[in-house]
Amino acid sequence: MFAWIARRKLARRRHQLDQRYRALLAEARDLQRKGDIRGFAAKTAEAEAVAAQLDQHSAAGTDARAAD
Q1: Alpha-carbon dihedral of residues 36, 37, 41, 46, nearest 10 degrees?
Q2: pTM tops 0.85, yes or no
Q3: What integer pLDDT is reported at residue 62 of this predicted model?
Q4: Torsion angle in degrees (nearest 10) through CA of 2, 58, 50, 5
């Protein structure tokens, strides 16, 4: 009955993770342009961790729709 609430929360979380991922990639790009390769590598690793979370949420969203 209230499945739409769960979908909305999941969509909001997915959107937040996507924004965080894009921001981290932008920061990594700027660090690379400045010549800070270690900083670039750290930000890229952090972005990949967020991307993994995003993939998990995307998979969970697909499972939630299949349950409806």
Answers
A1: 10
A2: no
A3: 64
A4: -10
Task: Look up residue 16 and give its amino acid.
Answer: Q
Tokens 């979370």 belong to: 53
End-to-end CA, the chain: 10
Query: Which is nearest to 32 in space by CA: 21, 41, 20?
Result: 41
pLDDT by position in tens, the chain (length 68)? 678 888 888 889 999 999 999 999 999 999 999 999 999 999 999 999 999 999 998 787 665 555 55
Place of tokens 């924004």: 19
Containing 36, the helix (H) or strand (E) segment is none
The alpha carbons of the chain give a radius of gyration, in whole angstroms, of 16
- The residue written with tokens 């967020």 in the block is 50
List alpha helices for 1-68, DSSP H: 3-34, 37-67
